[in-house]
Amino acid sequence: MVPIRLVLAVRDEQYIEPFLHYVLCSDFQRRLVVTAFSRQDAFLRYMEESGDLVHVVLAEPYFIGDKSSQDARQIPWICLGEEGVEKHFIGKLPKYQPLHSLLSSVLDLYRGGGQARIPTEGNCPVIGVYSTLGGSGKTTVALNMAKQLAMQGKRMFYLNLETVNAGLLFQGETRAGSQRAGLARLLYDLKGDEQRQQTVMPSVSTYALKHSILQSDTFGPVDNLNEILEMEEQDTIKLMDYIADSGLYDAVIVDTDSSPNSRSRAVMERSDKLVWLLTDDWSGMQKTELWLAHLERSNSTLFNSIMGKTFFAVNRYSGEMSAALPRKGMTVEATLSHISSWNPGIQQGALLHSPLFQRDVLRLCRDVFNNREFVGQGGLAGDR
Questions:
Q1: Which residues pair with 57 in a beta bridge?
Q2: Dist. CA 34–CA 340, nearest whole Å
């Protein structure tokens, strides 16, 4: 995992020591490398000489100095304290607060550039799972996230928007949900509702079914692929809004195609957080960089929004990264262990029962939601 390089600048030396000690003795040890300064001259000299290695600055307003040279590098600065010229900072955080809360807020601001999308009150978060690489384990990760959170007592919805859904999730399942109207009918009703300008729609339970293994609601696979192929970007966003706004769920996990299309674009745009899977190989990193570069050139606004809410995670991690990340300043937020006993053709149901993988997914969920109370701190779901 590549940690985020944080520079702390605060005049009180007695503030620095417990700050550094907490980072070294907490979960943040693997996520942050902290360099601290109490003198302005030493801080500014370090930023001038080594600023290219810095990812984010957490500083009191006193240390701002001549920040124009740092602006050119586009290093995000976070104000530590209640005073300061806000235009120089991407956010402002109280100096005296629990360090876990402070550091969590720093990571949130760094990822979101101060503009991360926050779900409106009453709505559940939509978590997209994406990868530029087919066969990266995207569906496995999405399914396990839904399962782990459901086993934690959360009301979950798993939404599969892949063009071709093999239906392995439903092998061995009873057809008790076959009487449900299904995704195709819901898409039809959503379009009809828009044309009629009506505001009342049937409950999600009219269309979805409860999956016994996932313990989450989901849609059965569609019979006609045209129902999926004809979905436009706004259709997809309206579908996600309908589920998230229903008030029935604590979170929605969305799985979509790796290839760029209207659905994957909508998931990137609408998701509150985006889990982007990488694989530790040169080819995979190159494909990721090519897609990021295209997205940045074609729609810089969407690119910046996506980067602000994305958690890059390496799947099939063997303990040490061998391939370089495709972009400078890009960080890996989570790793998911390589399970050597898993064969490429293994059925999806079997992938839901690896304690090691479930442990890693649970950690990923905690990082994505940045809220231990939401995810819980107990043992692995399913291991009781």
A1: 7, 77
A2: 35
Specify the residue for token string 């897609």. Answer: 291
Cα separation, 146 vs 139, in Å, equals 11
Q: How far apart are CA 158 and CA 160, in angstroms?
A: 7
In angstroms, the CA 66 to CA 81 distance is: 19
In a structure prediction context, what are the per-residue pLDDT tens digits for the chain, which is 384 residues long? Answer: 467 889 999 999 999 999 999 888 887 887 789 999 999 999 999 988 887 788 889 999 888 765 544 443 468 888 888 665 556 677 888 888 878 878 888 887 776 644 433 344 456 899 999 999 888 889 989 999 999 999 888 999 999 999 887 555 665 554 444 556 789 999 988 887 555 555 557 778 888 988 888 889 999 888 888 888 899 999 999 999 999 988 889 999 999 998 889 999 999 999 999 999 998 889 889 999 999 999 889 988 888 888 888 999 999 888 888 888 888 778 888 899 887 766 554 544 444 567 888 889 989 998 888 765 567 654 444 443
Give SS3 for 77: strand
DSSP secondary structure, 171-216, as one string = TT--GGGGGS-HHHHHHHHHHHHHHHT------GGGT-EEETTTTE
- Nearest-CA neighbor of 1 among 351, 321, 368? 321
Q: How far is CA 113 from the centre of its chain?
A: 15
Structure tokens at 45: 């000299």
